[in-house]
Amino acid sequence: MSTKILRIDASARRSGSVTRDLNDKIIERFQQAGDTQIATRDLANPLPLLDETWIGANFTDPAERTDAQKATLALSDELVAEVKAADVLLIGLPIYNFGVPGALKAWIDLVARARETFRYSENGPVGLLTGKRAIVTVASGGTEAGSDIDFATGYLRHVLGFIGITDVVFVNADRMMVDAEASLSAAANQIELIELAA
Questions:
Q1: Per-residue pLDDT reduced to its tens digit, 41-54
Q2: Residue 161 belongs to a domain with what CATH number?
């Protein structure tokens, strides 16, 4: 059975990116282990930010949306469909100024949609994208992953859980400007420990 991976690269750098290189290595592991289908969403190709028109369309009952509103939501619908089709999300997360890149936040805003990827119940929000895994490759210059000044990894874990993806593994190449060799070595070891089977 084929494993469907949605690869999301959030680094603004197309070359010389640590997270892109780590994503390459993880893809190689999956491909060596068996049949793998890869879909790619490169966020260096910027996504639009939410605006009043988009919010109005999103909060209109689907049965009552105009053709213009449907067109406004078309890209978001496409992004949601990509996530729904995937078994594994492979997300490159460079830490920019202690948080997630703006490009990744734009993707999150277009994917986290009530009635599509989560719903509200009397007991609170319920994620609708269950049964999936996420592998997140992290790179930073000086921010230690999981530390008090890391506002990226905890946020992304929460957002993924909010839409139903609770099986999340982080591969950290953090503090690259402190000791790049040690950081990359640690990340390589973490990649080798990733379980390829669901």
A1: 999 999 999 999 99
A2: 3.40.50.360
